[in-house]
Amino acid sequence: MPETTLPVNNSVLSVSTLNRLVRDCLESAFPLSWVGGEISNLTYAASGHVYFSLKDAGAQVRCVMWRSRAQTLGWRLENGQKVEARALVSFYEPRGEFQLNIEAIRRAGQGDLFERFLRLKAQLEAEGLFDPGRKRPLPSFPPRLAIVTSPQAAALRDVLSTLHRRAPHVAISLFPTPVQGDGAGPRIAAAIAAAAASDCAAIILCRGGGSIEDLWAFNEECVARAIVASRLPVISGVGHETDFTIADFAADHRAATPTAAAEQAAPERQQLLALLARQQQRLQQLGQRRLADRQQALDWLRSRLVHPAERIERQRQTIRELARRLQQAGQWQSTRRQMKLNALNGSLKQLDPLAVLSRGYALVTGPDGRALRDGSSVSTGDNLDIRLANGRLAAAVTQIVAPSQAD
């Protein structure tokens, strides 16, 4: 235990100092502990704090539960209740009073229930019943919802009023069942199975808040397995925000309260109407845009559209132009070829032996019919054929004169 340094014996302590030292000693000596007893002298202060005493047959101790803790309790304390409180041992210095600061409180005997709750939760979690991958989404636009609860439950009124306000178009089917007491668990499971076989789109499982004993039916294994076996998604709206049951872990969706479960189950009608209005506006804008695009494309096609008579006339003009160009090309080719022919004809005339003969020359061929170019290619007495521009002569070689002598 931590030691607190006290002044020397001859020092005079103020009352404030003494009380502070006592408080420090107590709070350091005692950790948070569970203390059991009976509530008496209970007072709910206007500040929200709760003051009471815990007593047993031999003693009592003053207790305080601050407002922040009392608001999350979920049930109301009463004189004479047997409870178990998780408390910090403390000392109220201004009045020099020993007291317990209460962190949490439960009805006596609930410790065993809580242990059962933890064991079952661990077992079902190990089997995969709480696996997030198994959870199913809620329908976006449910036409009908199933409610599993007691017809006398205040939670039912909350759910129905919320659904009527948010989604009056959604039909409701009630599957009544007791929500606490002996045999409530199996009957809740049977109601869930009946709802799952209906034509509803989702199931709301709900009841109001209470102690762990009041909510115990929703901690039974048969209820958890019925939720998992349901073909419809299940929303659990059991108890207050601080209450947790096995049904909450098994359900596809957990809501903090029955009202929150109704809000999850059905989208608000006004939001849907607003969404539809936005979608309608978007579709209208899209339609107008597409119509404008089609009109623009039509205008472009219309600008390219030509009357058949006009198209035929254009074709005729094209044909006439092609015919004119073809005629010009033909004439040019004809003129070009005629000029080439004339040039070739002129060249041939220059090479024509007859043309040479007309200028006074003669073509002399020897006995072998070849043209004579050299006098040494014939002999004296050979017959020669002499061709003139007009007529031919027959002659014989009488003398051969050498080139040097001919000059």
Plain-language structure description:
With 407 residues, this protein is of the alpha/beta class. The chain folds into 4 domains: 15-108, Nucleic acid-binding proteins (OB fold (Dihydrolipoamide Acetyltransferase, E2P), Beta Barrel), CATH 2.40.50.140; 113-267, Response regulator (Rossmann fold, 3-Layer(aba) Sandwich); 269-321; 356-406, no CATH class. The protein contains 12 helices and 13 strands. Strands 1-2-3-5-4 form a 5-stranded mixed β-barrel. Strands 7-6-8-9-10 form a 5-stranded parallel sheet. A hairpin with a 5-residue loop joins strand 1 (33-44) and strand 2. Helix 4 runs parallel beside helix 8 (258-265) and helix 5 runs parallel beside helix 6 (221-229).
Ends distance: 162 Å
* Unreliable sequence segments: none
Helix content estimate: 40-55%
Overall geometry comes to rod-shaped
**CATH architecture name of the largest domain:** 3-Layer(aba) Sandwich
**Mean model confidence by pLDDT:** 86
Along the chain, the helix and strand elements come as HEEEHEEHEHEHEHEHEHHHHEEEH
What is the CATH level 1 assignment of the largest domain? Alpha Beta
Q: Give the biggest beta sheet.
A: 5 strands, mixed, barrel
